[in-house]
Amino acid sequence: MKYLLLLSSLIFLHSCAKVSPWERGNLSKKSMAPDRDPLGDSMSDHMYFSREASLGGNGVGGGGCGCN
User: Which of 14, 31, 40, 63 has its CA 20 to 30 A from that of 46?
Assistant: First the structure.
C-alpha cells in the first residue's frame, strides 16, 4: 500500500510544472482560452445535437430538424 501511494504521489508531482514569467504571456493569450469562441461552440453543439436528434448536457434544446 505504501508503495502504491508513493508511486501515485510521484506521478502527480511530476505532472506539475513551473511556468516561467516569459511563458505566461503565451498562456494568457485569447487563443489559449478554452472558451475563446462561445458563439461558435454554441452553434457547433446545436448542429451536433440537431443531427443526432438528441439532447445533450450543454443546454441545447430541440432535435431533428434543427429549427429550435
Answer: 31
pLDDT of residue 20: 86
Residue range 29-45, pLDDT digits in tens: 887 777 778 888 888 87
Per-position b or e across 19-41, b if 16+ CB within 10 A of its CB: eeeeeeeeeeeeeeeeeeeeeee
List CB contacts of 58: < 8 A, sequence separation 6 or more.
45, 49
Residue 30 to residue 38: CA distance in whole angstroms: 12
Cell numbers for 52: 443526432
Instruction: Return d(Cα 42, Cα 1) in angstroms, integer.
Output: 46
User: Could you tell me the CA-to-CA distances from 18 to 13, 14, 28, 30 in Å, in that order?
Assistant: 11, 11, 15, 21
